[in-house]
Amino acid sequence: MIIAVDGPAASGKGTLAGGLAGYYRLPHLDTGLLYRAVGRAVEAHEGQADFEARAIEAARDLHPDDLDPEFLVAQKIGNLASKVAVIGEVRKALFQYQRNFALRHGGAVLDGRDIGTVICPEADVKLFIIADAHARAERRARQFAARGQAVDFETLYTQIEERDARDRANPNGGFYPAADAHLLDTTQLDIEAALRAAVAIVDAVIARKAGH
Ligand SMILES: Nc1ncnc2c1ncn2[C@@H]1O[C@H](COP(=O)(O)OP(=O)(O)OP(=O)(O)O)[C@@H](O)[C@H]1O
Ligand SMILES: Nc1ccn([C@@H]2O[C@H](COP(=O)(O)O)[C@@H](O)[C@H]2O)c(=O)n1
Question: Does the predicted interface ipTM exceed a cut of 0.90?
């Protein structure tokens, strides 16, 4: 079974995808880490003429060892990720790794922006996770605070909105709910309730496909 989990920044899709992977005993890939790793690799070139060429090179040279979330969690890296994500050649270079992961024997859970539309349009179940921007900024603020990182809420909120706008406008992306995606709004749900709701959707889709 392949489960695609898409949605905007800090909507909780990574947490949900991890929870679903545990529940259904499937491997999980957070595809945002690929874009973040490319963003991190070209941090020193931001604003320079060679930014795009360096990003394409970094995407083509990406190694699984570069995907350690510990080094990729910073808000600045997330913003850089959304800048390299508009480069078509970067997306092309990252496609096959994601596709291979999705097609592993036994299935997988992938989360990102374009899993249900581009990476795995044939996924068995597609979830599109949303939450209002204020709730997402609050979650991100708590996440950074728990890591002992001071954050300014207004800056965080503004950056989340900017990143959403850049992602939605990305001419090379597929950041929209697939026609057969199930929308899950987690604004009013805590992590456990969101996971219960996601499992209920997945189970219902599986049962329907099995003809029950
Ligand atoms: N339903 C929820 N209620 C409260 N907090 C949540 C919920 N879901 C996730 N969180 C918390 O919000 C933060 C962001 O969640 P997560 O990393 O899963 O989001 P994301 O959509 O994968 O983010 P990004 O795509 O930007 O990496 C984490 O600290 C997580 O524990
Ligand atoms: N499938 C994907 C995943 C991510 N992106 C871009 O990377 C940025 C960072 O992603 P996070 O999920 O870690 O926040 C994101 O803002 C997108 O620009 C993507 O394009 N496709």
Answer: yes
